[in-house]
Amino acid sequence: MLGRVLYRSRNNLLRYFCAKQTPPAGGDKDSKTLCEGDKAKPPSESANPAAAPNKVAASKAAAAAAADKAPETAASGKAAATGAPTKAPATAASGKAPAATAAAKEAKTATKCEGEQPASGKGAAKDTSGKGAAPPPPAPPQQKKKEPRIKTFQIYRWKPGEKPKMQTYNIDLNECGTMVLDALIKIKNEKDQTLAFRRSCREGICGSCSMNIGGINTLACVQKIDGNLAAPLRLYPLPHMYVIRDLVPDMSQFYEQYRTIQPWLQRKNESKEPKGGAQYLQHPQDRLELDGLVECILCACCQTACPSYWWNSDRYLGPAVLMQAYRWVIDSRDDATEKRLTQLIDPYKLYRCHTILNCTNTCPKNLNPAKAIIKLKQLLAGYKKKTEPKLETAKLFE
């Protein structure tokens, strides 16, 4: 009797939990299997479901036979209820233990079913643990491809043994820097490695890349490319100079004329002064007189823009050299003022300047060579004298 009661209690518990935890349509198959108690059964029962009713009937028969053979007494009933190890109710106790164990397993199975959620379907829970696959990042917006801005460059080409010519190059300004020198470098690197030109600092300081750009003498590193795509940009070497090759002029005559003005400080008692013993001091107000003169970088843009220099380049010193001559004449630390002015007394060296002002208009450093030439003429004519230095540096060495 006790075995039957336990067996019915087990079945009632199983029906209760499975009815309570019946998964929705399309739910997880594993949850349904757990609720049916497959994992609580031995492997043989799960593998052969058809044999389960026969085993249940056999269990009932065994329980009935045990009840008929063993007389029920109060003591044995008490021992069976308390699980005491008496010999008579051993069969009942042994029948209770598997049933209780099975009931406990079914309870655990039902608890597990309660904690599970359907993996799919409308009732599927969202994964909030953060371990799920993150959604892919949005694709970056596609940038519209810029339309090519083709600029035509016509460059003077010549090398010894050949006739000079103008060669055309097309450059996309979207793939090039803003300065003319950037275009020249791009042409040399990508289109024609035989193109010759000078360059160095790329900052308007050295004066190496001076050339004629669109009819104006200037520096290629500071001259912006004309944005008018319809008009070609023409590049020539500096005018009225011998050409070594392409855009490279011969600066030999210009440097020789610059050397004739002796561009260095000259002192009367220079032989008595210790070499490297001290520096030549200069008052700040005397230093201001040199502003607008010492910034010259000897690029020869003004020199080759002067028509008077074109006509008399063998004798006329030109605006760049004359401006540097004035710079050393008025320097308060220099003692050779009269000597320097005397060297300029010549019908051509200084007085070939007709104040055309091409030099001032074309200077890439915004200097005024024409003004310096006028002051030189005033000093030679006696209309103006060099101011006395406000700080006598020679006394430092006496």
Automatic annotation (TrEMBL):
Domain 2Fe-2S ferredoxin-type: residue ranges: 153-241
Protein EC: 1.3.5.1
Keywords for this protein: 2Fe-2S, 3Fe-4S, 4Fe-4S, Electron transport, Iron, Iron-sulfur, Membrane, Metal-binding, Mitochondrion, Mitochondrion inner membrane, Oxidoreductase, Transport, Tricarboxylic acid cycle
UniProt keyword Lipid metabolism present: no
Cofactor: [4Fe-4S] cluster; [2Fe-2S] cluster; [3Fe-4S] cluster
Principal localisation: mitochondrion
Positions of the UniProt region annotated as Disordered: 19-96, 108-150
Cofactor note: Binds 1 [4Fe-4S] cluster.
One Gene Ontology term of the molecular function aspect: 2 iron, 2 sulfur cluster binding
Topological category with respect to the lipid bilayer: Peripheral membrane protein
Pathway involvement of the protein, from the record: Carbohydrate metabolism; tricarboxylic acid cycle; fumarate from succinate (eukaryal route): step 1/1
Entry keyword Membrane: yes
GO cellular component term, pick one: mitochondrial inner membrane
Reaction equation(s) it catalyzes: a quinone + succinate = fumarate + a quinol
Intracellular or extracellular location(s): Mitochondrion inner membrane
Top class in the EC scheme: oxidoreductase
InterPro entries noted in UniProt: 2Fe-2S_ferredoxin-like_sf (IPR036010), 2Fe-2S_ferredoxin-type (IPR001041), 2Fe2S_fd_BS (IPR006058), 4Fe4S_Fe-S-bd (IPR017896), 4Fe4S_Fe_S_CS (IPR017900), Beta-grasp_dom_sf (IPR012675), Helical_ferredxn (IPR009051), SDH/FRD_Iron-Sulfur (IPR050573)
Biased composition (Basic and acidic residues): 27-42
GO BP terms, alphabetized: respiratory electron transport chain; tricarboxylic acid cycle
Ranges where the 4Fe-4S ferredoxin-type domain occurs: 286-316
Pfam families: Fer2_3, Fer4_17
Cited function: Iron-sulfur protein (IP) subunit of succinate dehydrogenase (SDH) that is involved in complex II of the mitochondrial electron transport chain and is responsible for transferring electrons from succinate to ubiquinone (coenzyme Q).
Similarity annotation: Belongs to the succinate dehydrogenase/fumarate reductase iron-sulfur protein family.
Protein name, per record: Succinate dehydrogenase [ubiquinone] iron-sulfur subunit, mitochondrial
Organism of derivation: Glossina fuscipes
Gene: LOC119637429
